[in-house]
Design brief:
The chain is α+β, with helices and mostly antiparallel strands. Among the domains are: 2-218, Rossmann fold; 228-342 and 420-424, no CATH class. The chain is built from 12 helices and 24 strands. Strands 5, 8, 18, 19, 20, 21, 22, 23 and 24 form a 9-stranded antiparallel sheet that branches. Strand 16 and strand 17 (410-415) form a beta hairpin. The longest helix has 20 residues, at 95-114. It is globular, with a radius of gyration of 25 Å. It starts with a strand and ends with a strand.
Length: 505
């Protein structure tokens, strides 16, 4: 069998190629270039050239043919344009997931097949296994042998989330040779084989583009436009009909009557949606290989603009009743999944006299719901959960983006990790966006199931209910999730580490 390895110049793909060669496959390597414009990259225009140079040396060391393919046209059309469109609409995309679905296991495979490849292999930390029936035979649906995709053995490096949009046809052509290994084991194999990539740092940035300054990258197509930054006070939620509806609905769904938990317990490992969308993109398919320190604080709700009071983390899990979930109407599910609308915060001006000459000036009247605290250069450049790049001072605790209004070009922010606008419990995936990897496990309308869900890379799996309705698939988390932004992907897993499906919400 002839296998093409996507050789990136990193240690993971290098070891993947080495192992396949040792296993007797007819292996060749191919390096893909997906990006030419270096204006927005933080390391200049030579990073990909260095990667290609290392990849070529690795291929020579292993003793396999090396090829180069330019997929920049396909990448721009299928991934970059998608990014621009999503951000311009106020959504937060994940280009790495699209890169795998549209490039690595589609356009790249087509290029590899022209060179005679039967399969494509990558250095992802995940595992593929055949789906077997009770007799031990591989299940076949619509003529396609069915495959399972499992988390990688290394819990610090599992990359199955990035493959959540792959189809059974794509999985049938894919190999993941290092999914059963840990990162230290991979580096050890590379050292023993004297591979030049053994000590190479993991790549960072957008898949095959590199680490970029996100606003600079987006400004290639999205026009900057100054707008207001509005801080939302806690009093707004006390009067907001949507927040009250969510509270009351969650309360009604609890197995035991009581107060629902609607605020995420703070952990330094979870920085909201901002890990991927701070001022630079750093979350990557290779990862950083480091361990993250877990925090132990959360913040209590606070009135008005008063600083939050730090208390010990008490992660209260909401225990919902499955029967009550089934009985909830489609209309209520739709509303439960809606984010808070902050357009109700309006500011009126007043004229006042200032100084000895009593010069007339105009200012905003005091508003108990919020305050204009700064300005930005375009709401499309920010995402829910973002903390860096706001340049807003005068606060005791961190300021986070809790909402964006693209039409009015307004960013809404809140102070503190425990701000009510930073957490949500429910999201909806539209019917057209529901993707099942395991076609045999598709949910039917009215069905309710328990799964574990991940909404960003390296996030620990979260317990949740999945509720299928004609209007979409609803994910109700036991614990509120912070930094939820539309355009992201949710992937759901079984208890035995199998990723079953995904969808963009």
């Amino acid at each position: 069998m002839k296998v093409c390895v996507g050789l990136s110049g990193g240690v993971d793909s290098s070891v993947a190629a080495l192992l396949l060669k040792r296993q007797g496959y007819d292996v060749f390597a191919m390096f893909m270039q997906n990006w030419h414009d270096a204006d927005a990259t933080l390391h200049g225009d030579c990073e990909w050239e260095e990667d290609r140079f290392v990849a070529e040396i690795v291929a020579r060391k292993i003793g396999i043919p090396f090829y180069f393919v330019d997929l920049s046209k396909e990448y721009r059309q299928r991934v970059v344009n998608y990014m621009f469109n999503e951000y311009s609409a106020g959504r937060t995309p994940n280009p790495d997931i699209l890169c795998n679905r549209e490039i690595k296991f589609d356009a790249f495979f087509e290029a590899a097949r022209e060179l005679g490849a039967d399969m494509v292999a990558t250095g992802h930390y995940c595992r593929r296994a055949p789906l077997l029936d009770d007799t031990g035979k591989q299940v076949v649906i619509n003529g396609l042998p069915q495959w399972r995709i499992l988390e990688g053995t290394d819990p610090n490096k599992d990359q199955s989330y990035f493959l959540c949009q792959l189809t059974q046809e794509q999985l049938g052509k894919a190999l993941f040779p290092i999914g059963h290994l840990t990162k230290p084991e991979v580096r050890q194999i590379a050292h023993l084989a004297d591979l030049p990539s053994a000590d190479k740092k993991d790549s960072q940035g957008i898949c095959f583009v590199g680490k970029v300054d996100l606003p600079t990258f987006l400004k290639q197509k999205l026009e900057p436009k100054e707008g207001d930054v509005v801080e939302v006070y806690d009093t707004y939620f006390q009067e907001n009909a949507q927040y009250k509806f969510v509270h009351d609905t969650l309360s009604s769904l609890l197995a035991t009557p009581g107060e629902p938990n609607m605020i995420t317990a703070f952990s330094s490992e979870d920085s909201g949606g901002a890990d991927f969308n701070n001022r630079s993109i750093e979350a990557t398919q290779e990862g950083d290989g480091g361990k993250r320190r877990r925090g132990s604080l959360r913040f209590a709700p606070y009135p008005g603009k008063c600083p939050p009071r730090r208390i010990a983390a008490t992660a209260t899990r909401n225990v919902f009743d499955a029967g009550k979930l089934t009985a909830l109407s489609d209309e209520d599910w739709m509303r439960l999944a809606e984010p808070i609308d902050y357009s109700g915060i309006k500011f009126e001006t007043e004229v006042y006299r200032s100084g000895k000459k009593h010069i007339k000036k105009v200012r905003y009247k005091e508003n108990p719901l919020g305050k204009i605290v700064g300005h930005h250069d375009g709401a499309q450049f920010y995402t829910i959960g973002q903390r860096k790049g706001l340049n807003i001072g005068g606060h005791q605790d961190s300021i986070f983006v809790i909402g964006t209004d693209i039409d009015r070009n307004i960013i809404y922010v809140g102070e503190g990790h425990g701000h009510k606008g930073l957490s949500r419990c429910c999201v909806r995936i539209a019917p057209k966006d529901i993707h099942w990897i395991r076609q045999d496990l598709k949910m039917t309308d009215g069905e309710v199931r328990r799964y574990r869900v991940r909404i960003r890379y390296r996030q620990p799996l979260q317990d949740a209910w999945l509720v299928k309705r004609p209007v979409g698939l609803f994910i109700l988390f036991d614990m509120p999730q912070r930094g939820i932004s539309s355009g992201q992907f949710a992937a759901w897993y079984s208890e035995d580490d199998e990723m079953l499906g995904s969808g963009v919400y």
